[in-house]
From TrEMBL, chain A:
It comes from Algibacter lectus. The keyword Ribosomal protein does not apply. Residues 1-18 form the signal peptide. This is Uncharacterized protein DUF3857. It holds the Pfam family DUF3857. Residues 67-207 form the DUF3857 domain. Keywords: Signal. InterPro entries: DUF3857, Transglutaminase-like.
Amino acid sequence: MKLTSLLLTLCFSLTVFAQDYHFGKVSKEELQEKFNPLDSSASATYLYKYRKSFYEYVEPSGFRLVTEVHERIKIYNQEGFDYATKTNRLSTSGGSDEEIRNLKAYTYHLVNGKVEETKLSKDGIFKTELSKYTNEYKFTMPDIKPGCIVEYKYRVNSPFIYNVDQFVFQYDIPVKKIQARFEAPEYFTFKESTRGYLSITPKKSSQADKIKLTSRTSIGRSYSEDLNFKKNITEFDLNNVPALKDEPYVNNINNYKSSVKYELSYTKYPDAPIKSYTTSWSDVVNTIYDNSNFGPELNKKGYFEEEIDALISTVSDPIQRTTLIFNYVKNKVKWNGYYGYGTNDGVKKAYKEQVGNVAEINLMLTAMLQHAGLRAYPVLVSTRQHGVPLFPTLEGYNYVVSYVKINDGGMLLDGTSRFSRPNVLPFRTLNWQGRVIAEAGGSTLIDLYPKQTSQNSVFFMASLSENGDLSGGYRSIKKSHKALSFRERYIDVDRDDFIARLENNYGGLEISDYNVKNELDLSKPIVESYKFVKESQADIIGDKMYFSPLFFLKTTDNPFKLSKREFPVDFGYPSKMNSKIVVKIPEGYRIESLPESGGLELPDDLGKFIYQVSGTGNTIQVSVLHEVNSAIINPAYYEALKSYFAQMIEKENEQIVLSRI
Amino acid sequence: MIIKRILNTLFLLVTLFSFSQQNLYTSFSIPDNLKQNANAVVRDDATTIILQSSQSMLVTEKRIVTVLNKEGNDAVNAYMHYDDNVNVKTLEVLVYDNFGKVIKKIKEKDFRDVSAVDGGTLYSDSRVKYLEYTPIKYPYTIEFNSEYETNNTAFINSFFPVTEYFLSVENSSYTLSFPEELVIRKKEKNIEGYKISKDLTSTKIHYSIKNVSGIKPEDYSPNFSDIVPKVMFASKQFSLKGVNSEVENWNEFGTWMYHDLIKSTHDLSEGTIIKIQELVKNEPDNIAKAKKIYQYVQDKVRYISVQVGIGGWQPFNASEVDRLGYGDCKGLTNYTMALLNAVGIESNYSVVFAGDSQRSLEKDFAAMQGNHVILNIPNNDEDIWLECTSQKLPFGFIGDFTDDRDVLVITPEGGKIQHTKKYIPEESLQTIKGICDISNDGSIKAMVNVNSKGIQYDNKYWLETETERDLDVYYKRRWKYINNMSINSMSIENDKNTIELIENINFQAVNYTKKVGERMLVNLNVLNRNTHIPDRYRSRKLPLKINRGFKDVDEVEINLPPDYNIESLPKGQSLETDFGSYTTEISVIDNSKIKYKRTFIINDGEFPKEDYAAFRTFYKEVSKLDNAKVALIKK
């Protein structure tokens, strides 16, 4: 019996179904499926996902962008119920709106062997005005139970012809079949950019098409004529796309999501000149530069001249000038939290009101530096959250910082962060490469990941008492990004709260004489020091004491828990931790044994760990160095990295044994 | 018209008067005691509410706040919620630098106007206008002026001067005036020890408070609403979305809700009623029937938050939930109630403050309160409570979302306050049984069985539906003090009948023990080490409150490595405190095996602030004893 059913199942799965992807043709087999055979952990699966974007000619306004969507989703269990709600964000601007039309949606169930359907009615559709520029169109499907299938189709009409949404082929649930099609008349030329790990091979073709143009003669008679043209078609057809899952220390999972983006390069209508959008990086740079909220804003100088002239009149050294102007901008204009490489209210208003977005602050900063005779340039940046721009696109960037060339070197500056320093940019901007915009419109790349190692040096002196309690002093010196992140956490926070949290992080440490130096003097490293007491830091068994000499400073948790890794590990910046520890042992005890000194290395000089311990009389000295030399580590090294951390934790845990004299 | 002019003049006089007293628009004039524990200081808040009739209310507020640092920006609270029933008359802000000079004026049109939908809500018809302001320099002062009129008088703003932690209040006043024929009720909370003055007449109520220093949040302390002063108000005669009502106590309130908001929504179709009767016809008693219906609801409908209708207070019709297969808490509770009703089982719609802080409805003050709805089934001494928005919770299990608090139970005869289920420590029991093998090389192999009940069940039942990949990470985190762990097998069983979660996990880890020369140190508590120590306070201000207790019982057999003998064995320990107890028993079997038994109990309760240090010490001791090690020596 069992064997037969097994055989049956086998035959079953060998049979290739001719799936019917027509709307409404949901099969019993699809409804019967209990889990996705290729990923049993999936709570839902796109059985079919279809999208077609094309241009439609409507008189009298001209071309509009139409996107047709058809999705069929299998929901296996309650965890997948979120996929029964679909949310669309629609842009609206100056009286032009994107709109959703022709929505048809059904939920399907298998009831006593028959497919039953429930239609989405009006009361399941919700429209909300989110803000001046965004409307939200949501619908939620009726009658959702584990095992059901939802299917819907609709079209989005958009007046924003240049704004073609990214074609995405990978989601947080698996996709069984995905088809997409993009059609554009020959008048539109697009740049196509692909990202992700899937191999995507678009099929290209072209077709003849025509539109009917209606005109009116001078005496009021209307006549129509056909305009023939060619349209370019790109088609995608993918099967069984696995789900994409997030991992720790991934810069931004969307960087690895397979997708294709179309960006309008130029339009060329019959009998009209070319209107250029973007085609190459220099076009991107030119377009951004020519935009009224970039280049012209950068070139405005009048509003600050007087103050800047006065500020730098007595200083001629370029580094000093840079520092003066950088600090001046940081003190004068506060960041309102908005991103963008283009200004919003303009530099002048930002200067006057002392509030601005990223572009207002950093373009102003660049302009001031230029005014002071420095070779300063704006640098286009894509923040970590925004992803990595691989191909020339206007939307590839969402941020701008400033770069000053001094002699052979240079300094990257970001005036939006209170604690940022030259070449120590806020963490959000540490994302691959930025694009330096030169005077002549050319551009070059600059690495945004810091080269300089961020250091934390710890000095730790303590004495261990007979009952295993530890007391002593801690002092640390933090530089670069370590200092930046400390300042972000420390300043403006209730001091007692901060200390309480620190005590808690170290599992009930008791801190006194807590002191921080240079917290507001950014040119100096942060010096943090305190006295501490921590109970029972040694195991006392018989006449012996056992303890790990790093005490509460040791690493306890390996951040890398998954056994496999597909994406680079991104730490943001290279770092170095250096600890010097001196421990006085209690009277009446002697050192019986010490762990061996030793070290670990990551391949290709990516990092190292050195552990040295020595003891004389009643004093033990330990020195530990842990450095990661690269901001990014390739997934090929993941195994090595994971075991490096595991071995480091082990080494740090090794015990010193004292015995009673 | 004339009245309005007089009012305006009066207002002007008041304003001028306070102006001349001192300059409130700079931080220099803040008394020192108010600067401590404060990120912002309310300099002066004057709220005036004119209840013109039971159908119309005018609310005016002038609020001057000095913000001392970045963390204080939120305390400005310059926003206004509105919907079709609210007519916004004034909304403006003046920003002052620290010299008291106006540096910016922000008008209503410059406020951000957005839908008041939070992440969990699918749709809501209410909107909010809020101030978006980037400070140039701290301190700065904001004057916020607002005025609106509404025909909704079911909610009258409370006098609630201290709105958050780290906020001091220099002066705050509240005036409610009303026609003589309206009966106003009020309730004062936590006002002892504050400088409060009040003036009550037959047409006017006035409260003011002075000089309140900021409060700092502390771990294990009472709910914020049980610490800060508050005076609540309600009018006997009120109107909600055009419907007039009269309510004076919870009984009348319940009658009103039942008859005006709930009753009419029980409109199941004949077909559904027959289907449900058919479904339960073979069940022996009402509880079994109710259980079957609850399961039916859990299988059929899902939770979706939609806030529309009478102030978001009226449930969807039962027929609608039946048809759509979803609803919000009101709709789903009401639907379950209608189904139970169809088979003759009495149940009651119950209003509650949901959340793990166990906030109660005010027992002796009937007014619009609560933010969630659950279902009550009367059952002699121990009523059954149903959480109808969950498709996972077992029948009669409400967990920490609505446990142990006063709620309003609405019956056809009226409303009454009842207390929900409290999970005592013995009920929130976690039992661990484990067998651990230590090998000569120091590695460990463990077979673990964990059984969780009560609130401990609530903390873990969601594991049942986690994916294997996420569970793997979850267990490595639960036992994060074990380095190099690899999990060999995991199985999770959720027994909804007995309300137990049973986890079976096998794992191994190399170098679990610490090897030093001839010796090996083995931590005896492999599976349930306490690493939590409550925060330390240099001077504790708030009472100690433990919301929920629990009990952990662990029994673990540790098989020792064959090449080693026991050199020294820690003793069993026992700690007994008001907050809980801790006992370990350690015994050796056949020289090759150690039996480790541990019982850890935390009791719930409220204690004076002086006890906090002892409570913390108890946890610290437990952490320390959980680190006890046996020393082995090579044979």
